């Protein structure tokens, strides 16, 4: 009796993966490696890169502007992720429990489809201190103009609010997709036992949504640290560095002051911080495990 040898599809799999691997190496791997190299040089676009060791990193750790940018970014991350996740979770739950309208889902996705620069310009005009539509409305009810982008207290919450408006719908759809994977009979059984919507949300929805919620939080964390477009269009890091996030700090060092090596060191440092935060987040949320068995 002859036995058929199992077919080995590994070669075919590698052939299918090859274009992706080449693209990743060319557009991500090589630039990342060059960035790490530039971070230990004094490259400034006008001279040949010269190796300086850890000088850029030492200077970075002693730079008050860098740490201020990190604190400003952390404040933005707290505002953005907190508001965006809570709103998205609420919207996703309402869609899951009350309506599953395709029109509503398409409407929620519209702000996410608009380019960030366009969104920044739109809200800059709406919230302008002198001519903005929102301040005109405030004036009609007897309230003074609010410097949404020119007041240190309002600037960062305003930027966070703009991006929350832009990305909440997309985040809600991700969470909604995760909720659709939860078996309906769990809700039916809990309802028969007398559980209300809030208790079902705490006891069923949140625990079983943990892997998707972990993914959303990790993506939101990385995206929040990469905030740049809205800042560049509306506040340009002001007022008085109140919105100078780390990406804008790196941009200024690289393309205004031409400190390419120093900017590369800041970028590498940021990548390491994001890696550590992501690992901690995944660990705390137990992202690889689900309560759905």
From TrEMBL:
<dbReference type="InterPro" id="IPR000515">
    <property type="entry name" value="MetI-like"/>
</dbReference>
<dbReference type="Pfam" id="PF00528">
    <property type="entry name" value="BPD_transp_1"/>
</dbReference>
<feature type="transmembrane region" description="Helical">
    <location>
        <begin position="12"/>
        <end position="30"/>
    </location>
</feature>
<dbReference type="GO" id="GO:0055085">
    <property type="term" value="P:transmembrane transport"/>
</dbReference>
<feature type="transmembrane region" description="Helical">
    <location>
        <begin position="102"/>
        <end position="126"/>
    </location>
</feature>
<feature type="domain" description="ABC transmembrane type-1">
    <location>
        <begin position="66"/>
        <end position="281"/>
    </location>
</feature>
<feature type="transmembrane region" description="Helical">
    <location>
        <begin position="74"/>
        <end position="95"/>
    </location>
</feature>
<comment type="similarity">
    <text>Belongs to the binding-protein-dependent transport system permease family.</text>
</comment>
<keyword id="KW-0812">Transmembrane</keyword>
<dbReference type="GO" id="GO:0005886">
    <property type="term" value="C:plasma membrane"/>
</dbReference>
<protein>
    <submittedName>
        <fullName>Sugar ABC transporter permease</fullName>
    </submittedName>
</protein>
<feature type="transmembrane region" description="Helical">
    <location>
        <begin position="165"/>
        <end position="187"/>
    </location>
</feature>
<keyword id="KW-1003">Cell membrane</keyword>
<feature type="transmembrane region" description="Helical">
    <location>
        <begin position="208"/>
        <end position="228"/>
    </location>
</feature>
<dbReference type="InterPro" id="IPR035906">
    <property type="entry name" value="MetI-like_sf"/>
</dbReference>
<keyword id="KW-0472">Membrane</keyword>
<dbReference type="InterPro" id="IPR051393">
    <property type="entry name" value="ABC_transporter_permease"/>
</dbReference>
<keyword id="KW-1133">Transmembrane helix</keyword>
<feature type="transmembrane region" description="Helical">
    <location>
        <begin position="257"/>
        <end position="280"/>
    </location>
</feature>
<keyword id="KW-0813">Transport</keyword>
């Amino acid at each position: 009796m002859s036995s058929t040898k199992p077919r080995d599809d590994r070669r075919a799999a590698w052939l299918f993966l090859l274009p992706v691997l080449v693209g990743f190496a060319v557009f991500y791997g090589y630039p990342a490696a060059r960035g790490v190299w530039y971070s230990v040089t004094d490259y400034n676009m006008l001279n040949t890169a010269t190796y300086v060791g850890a000088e850029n990193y030492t200077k970075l750790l002693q730079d008050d502007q860098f740490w201020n940018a990190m604190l400003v970014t952390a404040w933005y991350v707290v505002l953005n992720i907190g508001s965006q996740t809570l709103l998205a979770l609420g919207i996703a739950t309402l869609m899951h429990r009350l309506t599953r309208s395709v029109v509503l889902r398409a409407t929620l996705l519209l702000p996410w489809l608009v380019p960030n620069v366009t969104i920044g310009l739109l809200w800059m005009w709406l919230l302008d201190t002198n001519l903005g539509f929102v301040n005109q409305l405030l004036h009609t009810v007897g309230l003074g103009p609010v410097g949404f982008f020119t007041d240190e207290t309002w600037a960062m919450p305003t930027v966070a609010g703009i991006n929350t408006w832009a990305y909440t719908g997309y985040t809600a759809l991700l969470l909604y997709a995760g909720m659709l994977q939860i078996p309906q009979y769990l809700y039916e059984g809990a309802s028969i036992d007398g559980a209300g919507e809030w208790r079902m949300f705490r006891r069923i929805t949140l625990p079983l949504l943990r892997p998707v919620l972990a993914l959303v939080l990790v993506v939101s964390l990385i995206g929040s640290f990469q905030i740049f477009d809205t800042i560049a269009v509306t506040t340009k890091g002001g007022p008085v560095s109140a919105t100078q996030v780390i990406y804008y700090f790196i941009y200024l060092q690289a393309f205004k002051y031409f400190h390419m090596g120093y900017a590369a060191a800041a970028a590498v440092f940021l990548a390491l911080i994001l890696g550590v935060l992501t690992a901690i987040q995944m660990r705390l949320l137990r992202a690889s495990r689900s309560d759905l068995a």
